[in-house]
Design a protein that fits this description.
mainly alpha, about 140 residues
C-alpha cells in the first residue's frame, strides 16, 4: 500500500471509534506491536529532541525504500510511533517526501494531544520526512568552469 492509502486506512480505522478513550486504546495497541528497539541505538544520535517522553528513532535506506524503527518509554507516544511506522516504514522516500500529514487532522490528533505530545509527534514526523528527503535529493553540480 502507498503512503496515502495507509493514511486513508488509518483514518478509516479511527473513525470506527466514537470516543477518544477508545481511540487512545487503539493507538496504545499500535504501540504494543512495535518491534524491539536495539539497546545500542538508545543514544544521543538516535534520541528525538522535542518530545515530552524519551523517544529514539532510527532509519535505514535499503533497496529503494526507507525503514524506520522507534521506541518510547510512554504508552501513548509508543502508539504514535507505531502509527507512524505503519504509514511510513517500507515506503519509497519520494512517496514520503511528496505526502502530507493531513491525516492527523482528519483523525483529530492535532486537537486531542497535549501541546508537548503534539510537539513530539511533529519532531518524529520531521525526522521521517527529513530522512526521506535526504534520499531523494539530487547531487549538487560542483563542476568547475
Amino acid at each position: 500500500m502507498s503512503v496515502i492509502e495507509k493514511q486513508m486506512e488509518l483514518v478509516d480505522n479511527f473513525s470506527f471509534f466514537d470516543d477518544w478513550e477508545d481511540k487512545y486504546a487503539f493507538l496504545i495497541g499500535m504501540g504494543k506491536s512495535l518491534p524491539l528497539y536495539p539497546e545500542d541505538k538508545k543514544d544521543d544520535e538516535h534520541f528525538v529532541k522535542g518530545c515530552q517522553s524519551q523517544v529514539w528513532f532510527d532509519a535505514e535506506y535499503k533497496d529503494g525504500r526507507v525503514y524506520f524503527i522507534g521506541m518510547s518509554d510512554a504508552m501513548i507516544v509508543s502508539g504514535l510511533i507505531g502509527m507512524l511506522l505503519e504509514i511510513y516504514s517500507a515506503q519509497k522516500p519520494e512517496d514520503i517526501a511528496n505526502s502530507t500529514t493531513d491525516f492527523l487532522k482528519e483523525i483529530g490528533l492535532d486537537s486531542h494531544l497535549s501541546a508537548t505530545r503534539n510537539n513530539g509527534l511533529h519532531s518524529m514526523i520531521g525526522y521521517i520526512y527529513s530522512f526521506a528527503r535526504s534520499k531523494t535529493a539530487l547531487p549538487t553540480n560542483t563542476h568547475a568552469k
